[in-house]
């Protein structure tokens, strides 16, 4: 049963720090500390105090996570990695809602978390690294799982948020409990006119939930619908241009937009006996998106869509008191289509005008089939738990090119100056198979402390965009799956009012997919990722709590490539700050009043692979407060960027445009009221 608590006003000192539950690591509710992996959680209470307008505001409280907010609901993610960019980079981090991936394995989108109901989630769990056999392609650096609330027990909420720059949001949650059955819904409507010129976000999200239970069966069904209509502001250019208020507020791409719709439905049936739990979860997805690629010459329009269905299954068997076996099979089928069309002639240099033609650039369909059996065994030997598992995954693409193959215009004529930019491979079939082993050890030092280690391998199959959206002379992309070998050690536990997670990891990635200086999509990349992380929660007193999430890491290239006469081997990967830190001080002076001060630090980072250009980093402060006026009514106020710091949410450098930035928002305010019954 979920009890809706917009803000839980409890004495910090009375909270038990050991009861940290996760479902992401095992698909069942499990205590997080004994596991040989790290799963970090943002609770419903934390989410209510943050009242996030973007998921970046939430995930910055996770050590090792670095979500760079673009404009509107757009972002670029990082988890134990540099910020991920490129056509298929999103495939290195799996995004899910209620344990079901948001997209099929070959069709990720770098912004896909805006299709989750983060604003009204029950909690958000982040599994770090490729440590679980439950997840295959795309879970190289980990899993972000947004868990929606079970609204079938009759709790209700009405919330209103209003803030600076025209921000407004309505939140509504309600349900009805009929004993063995229940129904409920969870909805939010957002209107945001934005800080920058000619930008806006209109967004609606809805969750429906149904529950049925009997003596040996629990059936829960869910539905999520999201709609986004966004007018987008792009990069600003020029060295440290984000410090100029007029430039920071300007929008050089007033025609840019993104329109996206997603629909997902699932039904989870769970049967339980004395030694067995069987879970079967069929699901359905349907998504479509139109957006103007304002960052490309000619600003083409992309239209992409996918429809698919799948099944997750899991059998859990307690062989005896010491051995538990997990055996499962996941499968899915997806039909996707992609169209890129340029409506107007290209503007710019003579070379761009000649090589980037008006008309269709790509038009193709891909049918994808995936199947993945997996097994894991947990064996308890006194204080030691051994977790061993493996997952085999096979994915097949059936690609149908709806245009002329090659790098011609859509009418078959040849572009001048060497040929057209965009190249379309002939229709084909591609398949990829991967086996991913996992081994974890967790040793219970005493009742409250654990030492753990895990060795694991992650992988991701090439994405459809990497295989079929080629450029220049490339006629076929001969790619193999990207892999990552991961070693991790750590300590977890609690001492009195301190809960802690300390971890160190070393990951080597091979066969990284990227577009080289000849505009070929290749498989030659290698990189090293080394880091240490700490997450602490400490109740200093009955009224003051300290929380810290920090990481120090080096993400570096480990292969030879000459760019502008520099071999990047050994260089820091661009957009990979060495240090990230987030600290919060929560003060509860009375049973009905709460204050929270947050400090967030991003260290300097290089903005190009040659390490010639850099962003200096920044410090930000946010202040949040809440007052529970009655048992049902809560008021809250928030100030983000308290010191009105001029900073960049994202910085990078290209040879075409030089320094580019997404400017951060100045000091802004939000007032909220929520009523529960």
Chain-wise SSE layout:
Layout (H helix, E strand, L loop, with lengths): L20 E2 L7 E2 L7 E4 L1 H7 L5 H4 L8 E2 L5 E2 L17 E4 L2 E2 L21 E6 L13 E6 L9 E7 L3 E11 L3 E12 L7 E14 L3 E15 L4 E2 L7 H5 L7 E16 L3 E17 L8 E18 L4 E20 L7 H6 L3 E23 L2 E18 L20 E2 L4 E17 L4 E12 L3 H5 L1 E2 L10 E14 L2 E18 L5 E19 L4 E14 L4 E2 L2 E2 L11 E12 L2 E10 L2 E2 L7 E2 L2 E11 L4 E8 L7 E7 L3 E6 L4 E9 L1
Parallel strand pairs: 6-9
Antiparallel strand pairs: 1-2, 3-8, 4-5, 6-7, 8-9, 10-11, 10-40, 11-12, 12-13, 13-14, 14-16, 15-39, 16-17, 17-18, 18-19, 19-20, 20-21, 21-23, 22-25, 23-24, 24-26, 26-27, 27-28, 28-29, 29-32, 30-31, 32-33, 33-36, 34-35, 36-37, 37-40, 38-39
Write up this protein.
- The chain is mainly β and about 675 residues long.
- The chain has one domain (about 10-675): TonB-dependent receptor, beta-barrel domain (Maltoporin, Chain A).
- It is about 5% helix and about 55% strand.
- The longest helix has 7 residues, at about 45-50.
- The protein is globular.
- About 45% of the residues are buried.
- Keywords: Cell outer membrane, Ion transport, Iron, Iron transport, Membrane, Signal, TonB box, Transmembrane, Transmembrane beta strand, Transport.
- It is a multi-pass membrane protein.
- This is Ligand-gated channel protein.
- It is found in: Cell outer membrane.
